[in-house]
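[audit] Reproducing an earlier prediction to check determinism. Same input, same settings, fresh worker. If the tokens differ from the archived copy the diff job will pick it up downstream; this log only records the rerun itself.
[audit] input (401 residues):
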Amino acid sequence: MTGGVHGRVDDAVVVGGGAAGLCLAHWLTRTGTGVTLVEAPDGPLRPAERTWCYWEAGTGEFEEAVVASWQRLRVRGPDGSAVGSDPSPLRYRMVRSGPFEQLVHSRLAAAPEARVLRATAHEVRDAPYGAEVRCTTADGRPLTLRGRYVFDSRPVPGAPPHRTILLQHFRGWFVRTAAPRFEPQVADLMDFRVPQPRHGLAFGYVLPLAPDRALVEYTEFSRAPLTTAAYEAALRQYSAGVLRLGRFTVESAEQGVIPMTDARFPRRTGRAVFRIGAAGGATRPATGYTFAAVQRQSRAIATALRDGRPGVPPPHGRRALAMDAVLLRALDTGRVDGPRFFTDLFRRVPMERLLRFLDGGSTPWEEFGIGLRTPVGPMLRTAAEVPFLARRATGRSEESS
């Protein structure tokens, strides 16, 4: 490094060390592509430890970072009725960001064409040789990185123009109980035995790690997040009044907000600059799941770059996005009752088929059958309305109040 400018031009520079940046750096090295991964130094820009969940068949590329998995999934209605199933060959998996980062870093360290730098990225822009990233190192020195292509995973401020936006916001406790209280093989994806907000829906989420340990979350789909005190009150009520955990200790907590929107996220912001991950639309609008789409997107980017076709493919198909836009609008307007909608959907559709649908792997015929198992009238009314709604660059849904 001379004069604050790194002289070499990498095949790719990846900005951000979250799930998207780590996945892409890994897959680029698998195709022999030279890559520099830029991660924020320790401090406020580095996110806290967090959890990513997804479902997958067989043994995946990052199986070593999976801290728990479940062969049965369950949804509970407001009345406590349970719908459970084994979605084989799919299995639900949990990855924690710490072990995942360690795994990918160890693989990058073993790849001669890869390196990891700690610096704060300030500006990404096109350049004659491709693109450059202007950074500041941890000790305050300016640094410019050069690449034929730059892939930026940093969060974007606000959502692009949209018709509907809801927030999936949550707080979770990693708890240890005084006595066994959990079924280690069963994950509760949605437990609607919690008070429902005036707008949107709320549910509990339980991922057992052992008979006496679990991640217990309170989640809402609504227009605004809660205070930490409100999440804590909801978690206490759910843990004591619904799950009846008895005496327990909270070993750690996590909290987050995931936008659920039909906004169109641009995946290309310059001649040689691309956005990836949630910033590039990888979050599934109707569910908030991101990790599986990030893996698919990363593999596709690495293959395309190897074959001389640089670009970022859409993480979700057009049919999936169109259906998600209808569901988000139906939930936001209150035309469908959220707890009943999801409980009935899991009751009427085989679990494995529904998970493939939520991951964009279903056929048009399967999607038609799933549609018939939703409230057809309200959904058709919403589907007819959505194409005529204007997209607005606001924090509110179109025509919502």
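[audit] rerun output stored. Observation attached for the diff report: The first helix runs from residue 19 to 30.
[audit] end
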